[in-house]
Structure formats: C-alpha cells, structure tokens
Design goal:
The chain has 303 residues and is of the alpha/beta class. It has eight helices and 16 strands. The protein starts with a helix and ends with a strand.
C-alpha cells in the first residue's frame, strides 16, 4: 500500500468531485486494484480484490491524516469502502456519514450522487472532458443523448446553449435522477426523456431529428441492453441517418478488452460516411499504462 500512501501526499480535497488515485491505470505496480474518489464531502475507497484487515486499517489511518491536513473540510472524516469482485459489490460506511441528499459539483454543474447503491454512483468521473467538450460545442444545436443514464451530457449541452436535447435510456430510474439533475441546475425546459430500448425506438428518434450532435456512451457489456462486440455495429448502421450534414457524434467505449482499433474498425465498416476528427483526452488522473484499456472517446463528423 506504500505507493498509494505516497501519492496521497500530492492530494488536495477541493470543492469539486474528482478521482484522487487511479490504481486501475496500472502505473502503480501492485496497486492496480485500488481507486480513491472524492465525492465531497465523502471519500470513496474502492478495491477490486479483498483488502487485508491490516491494510484497511492502515488506509483508514492515512486517509484520516489526509483529511486533517486539508483546509477545505470540516469535522471528522467521511469514508465509504466498496469491494467489488465477480459482479458482487460490498459497500459500507467506515467513518462519518453520507449525506441523505448528496450533491457534487463538476465544472459549474451539480449532480445527485448515490454512493451506497451498487457500482454506478450517478456520475462517471473519467468522462469529465467529454462533458466539457459537449458544453463547449453544443450552442444552438439539437442534441441526441443515447444511453443517457443520469443525463449529465444533457445538462452539459443545455448549459452550453443547446436548443434541445433528447435523452433515451432503458432505465427509467436513471432518467428520473436525470430529470432531477436538470432541475438542480435550473434547466426546467429544453430536454426530453424517453425510457425506451434504443434499438426499438429508431422511428421515434428519427421523427424528433435530425440532430447536429449525437452522444453515444453505451455500457460495454450489459446483457439485455448493450454488448459492444455485437451491438456497436447495429448502432452505427443507423446513426448517420440521424445526423445532419456536418453533424458530429461522440462515440464512447469503456471496455479494457477492446482497443481503439475495434471502435474505429466498426465505424469504417458500418458508418463509412463518418469521418474521424479526434480522440478526446481523458482527465490526467486517469492516465493508463495501456491507453487502449482506458476510456475511448472518439469524435466523428458526417460528410
């Protein structure tokens, strides 16, 4: 755990949500199983293998020390520990409390967070740069947000001046939180929400389009929703017809076993009138020893 402890010397707990330690990136040998996130006012320690009791006690002591070193926090430490293994998740509050209504800020936006409900907490931190890109480029555009989850992209688009956003996701519960996120950010209009299967909704999406911007951020392997190896091709066959000429699409893939070549190959085969523009960089804290294993966010333009 010493590499983890050493990195904490460079950590500041500021007012915005952030990843503090990204062991999953493989640049800290022996610590590939550990991540630390800051969801103010709560620290979230995640491990992908069981931590020995002694290591967990040492981690709590060092995190308590980190907390006491900060000028931006008050009172005693709030710490949640989550252990994930083979699809199973164990979550417990090790110190302090988690706010009943837990709100965090990122780049001028606020979001509802749920640290004690499974593995998905309401906001994927590695997509921060993608949300900023949408905010910077959405002005006066009609936007389609596929696999919208809690609609953080929609909030970013409307904050960036989008004319309208269509959000679609199979999870009505996630979309309900998405609606709350819009109200939280004083965005009572401009967004529509559809709790539908995307692959059964092409007619509705076509009728509401075409769109100047499309965001596709699907799960990589979620049975009954989307499995990248078989469903990205289905998606790409239909995307271009939803785009205006010169419309842009962000294609996202977060599957360590599938590199950028997979996604680019899928586009070349199934959407040949989409032209690659750039790959968006991930936040620096998410640096990975093998960039192909990290989140891939590719920007394409229709010609």
């Amino acid at each position: 755990m010493q590499l983890f402890f050493d990195e904490l010397n460079n950590v500041t707990l500021d007012e915005e949500v952030n990843r503090l330690f990204h062991g999953r990136g493989g640049i800290y040998p022996g610590m590939e199983h550990v991540c630390l996130d800051w969801f103010p006012p709560v620290l979230l320690l995640t491990s992908f293998k069981s931590l020995a009791e002694d290591d967990l006690v040492l981690a709590m002591d060092r995190l308590s020390q980190l907390w006491d070193e900060q000028d931006t926090v008050n009172g005693s430490m709030n710490l949640v520990y989550q252990y994930r293994n083979s699809g199973q998740t164990h979550t417990e509050v090790l110190a302090g409390v988690v706010p009943e209504q837990h709100l965090v800020r990122e780049n001028g936006a606020e979001f509802h967070i749920h640290l004690l409900r499974g593995q998905n907490h309401g906001l994927f931190l590695d997509m921060k740069n993608g949300r900023q890109w949408v905010r910077d480029h959405a002005a006066d555009k009609k936007v389609l947000n596929l696999f919208a989850y809690t609609c953080a992209f929609s909030v970013a688009a409307l904050q960036g001046g989008a004319d309208s956003v269509v959000n679609i996701d199979m999870s009505k519960g996630a979309l309900s939180i998405g609606k709350q996120n819009h109200l939280l950010n004083h965005l009572p209009s401009g967004a529509r929400f559809f709790g539908h299967d995307i692959f059964k909704s092409w007619g509705k999406l076509t009728k509401l389009g075409p769109y100047e911007m499309i965001i596709a951020d699907p799960p990589s392997n979620q049975k009954g929703s989307f499995v990248a190896t078989k469903d990205y091709s289905r998606l790409l066959k239909r995307l271009p017809e939803l785009l205006t000429p010169d419309g842009e699409v962000l294609l996202c893939l977060n599957a360590p076993e599938l590199g950028i070549e997979f996604l680019m190959g899928q586009v070349a085969e199934y959407s040949p009138n989409l032209v690659f523009v750039e790959q968006l960089a991930n936040p620096e804290v998410f640096t990975d020893r093998d960039p192909n294993k990290a989140l891939k966010v590719l920007r394409y333009r229709r010609v």
